[in-house]
Amino acid sequence: MVITGKNFIGNQLSAKGSESYKTYNPSKNIDNETVYVEATTEELDEAAALAETAFITYSEMPGVKRAAFLNAIADEILNLGTALVDIYCEETGLPEGRALGERGRTVFQLQLFAKMIASEDWRNIVSEKALPERTPLPKPSLQKTHIPLGPIAVFGASNFPLAYSTAGGDTASALAAGCPVIVKSHPMHSGTGALVASAILKAAEDTEMPNGVFSNINSKSYARAHALVSHPKIKGVGFTGSFLGGSSLQESVWKREEPIPFFAEMGSINPIAIMPGSIAENHKEVAQKIAGSMVLGVGQFCTQPGLILVMEGGKTDDFIEALEIALSKTEQQCMIHPNLKQNYIQQSDKINDLNGTKVIKTGREIPDDTFVYPKLSLVSGDQFLKDTKYQEEVFGPFSLIVKCKNTKELEAVTHSLKGQLTGSIFAQPSDYGLITPLIQIMKSKVGRFLFNDVPTGVEVSDAMTHGGPFPAASDSRFSAVGHGAIYRWVRPITYQNWPEELL
User: Fold this and answer.
1) Does 334 qualify as catalytic in the annotation?
2) Which of 265, 365, 409, 411 is catalytic?
3) Cβ(367)–Cβ(274) under 8 Å?
4) 471: cis peptide before it, omega within 30°?
5) What 3-state DSSP class applies to 50?
6) Is 265 an annotated catalytic residue?
7) Considering 46, 89, 179, 302, which one is annotated as catalytic?
8) DSSP 499
């Protein structure tokens, strides 16, 4: 398929705007060729109107028909072949293996939701028979089920061009629930988004879905993003990105005349607490494991371990040295975009410039390109507790070690943390008597709690929680990954005294 740079407004290509942009090849340090035309307010209105009309039909389709649509999307993504892998690598600088892995995850998510909705069990239907003879009052027949909300806006994520973007988890779960989707493609990988959008629309045509069930708009404009979440025909929003971007969009949602659900995953520093017994027995192995997690994907994961909590004494200094050595063996890596590299430098420098920070390993960034090295810094527990700036996320391969005086200070540091996507404890049986209070504190802060493991790598399954207390996510009751993601896009409804044949 030829990438036109136009918007997909339902099943039609459109380019009414006068503003445009290009994506960037971070490995070659050049712009890519295709020019992408910014969507206009008129085009946004058209997409929303089509989605609202499509919802009437699509929301009432049997689950097996929507399942066929999702499976067809998965097939069409695979049919894109090397063209999708090539543009993915051109727009991200990430290796082919990462592209293939993320494509596989995207396809699996679509197939997972297709299998889930093939029956109506996912609706958790509760039926209660009428009891007309009950005294003092008769009981009506009641049936509770779940129905879709309406058109959903989905924002593509900068760090996951496939699994969290055009046909990613938000889109797959919303389509599964019966909601049309309008995607705002991320401007860093609009070509990847365009190819996937073409696959979705081909699948929609082949499975006879209503026009407007999916649209894909190009935009690097903050104004257009706010216009999308503010549009009266949009009934829910899925966002994966920074706290700054997510909280800004949430403010626009709050200002709407009609409030709607806003599900944002906004990052995390994912604390790892390493207990003395674990350091005494396995400090080199633990250091190697954490170093690998830090630099995986150039640290461009929302689950990158950005905070390491240890206690003074024992082999703690040996662990820190082993972690520094492991990171020193990492070659320079290419970040997805120069803007992300610049943010990485600024955010890490901001923490390193705070009073009390000791820089253990500083990156040797090359000017004017996207390659970076990992960074590691150290601060005392006492100093960490004095300044909340230490809790700000650094998007990239950076971690801050907090060296605490004792267990009580480590618990105080953990208690001071904001909401997180994940938290980890490394411990041996000799530590078990120490960690009960820490467990209670940590689990109140996180959505996923790991033991002797690192947070990178999010399994797509029914048991997964990818979310957490604010500000890691906007609503800690839901997961953005796994079967449970579908329940963000539905609401309960109860039918009273309805005939069985109409139900």
Assistant:
1) no
2) 265
3) no
4) yes
5) helix
6) yes
7) 302
8) -
